[in-house]
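#structure-requests
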Amino acid sequence: MKKIMFKLLLGCSIFGVLSCSIASDSTTKDSIVSNDDGIRVAESEKDFDKRQREKVTLFFIRDKNIQTSQGQVSQAPAVDVFINEDYLGSIWEGSYKSVKVCPQNYSVAVDYSSPNKFANRYNGRMYDIGLGGVAYLQLVDGKGGKPTIKYIDKDVAQKMMANTKNLVKDNHSTISRVDEKIPCVLPPVIKHYELNVKTLFAFNRSDKAGILQEGKDKIQEIASVINTNKANISLVKIAGYTDPSGSDAYNKLLSERRAKTIARLLGNRIQKNVADTGIEFQSLGYGEDGLLDADCSKKYPNNRIRRIACDQINRRVEITLYGIDE
């Protein structure tokens, strides 16, 4: 079958969003999948079922008593959740909702409901979760009065959900616009790297001159993998992240600059001209969105050194190499 490059919806930009539809065929019992190049490909029921099983399940949970960063009880309105800019639902305090999405092909955006303006469904981000995986995402009051997402483990989530309302089973909840039956036709992930900024850049630097030797060595290692597999790679995504200290605007700019610097350096080390390989490079900066540990300030409110050490995991650049779907 002809190799097809599938582009993904990642972060706050749309790069040829995958659009799929299914039509029944009583003679072949196949699904007809239309990709964004207009090529219609027959997919067997077995393959379709396999892709459905590989979907990721996301649980969005709000506790009954949401605590603000100052330790006060929140009086926040419902949090609107959007998947690929489609409305999933409004999650009130003491409720939760789940959804199945295609791995490596979705973005999540959250914003407080308001009678005076539309919630912001854009600027979403992707959460890297393995095939068939489950993620428990708690909706909490974040910096600047904005809702944010916090990873929680299964045991904590299940205890929380035992005392909250399942909106999927609630006939009075708002109707989701997310189509969970869309088939997952995705390029495989060849390799995923998570690089700590401490090994990449000098403090507060984002330019090429600020890259440390250890960082240069790691980038060369990744470039070698791309050179070896360039015929089988369709997309290289570079995503920058920061910790929550500093302003939102500064953190987003810093993460964007770091991602762009890494993207340029990787591109320069590809043996063949990048344009000729057909590989797409995407650099995105998420700032302090997507914290791996969102509780460092609570853990060490009076110990700056330990707080900075705790936040080290959040200061990172993630590089993902996507293959070509055969």
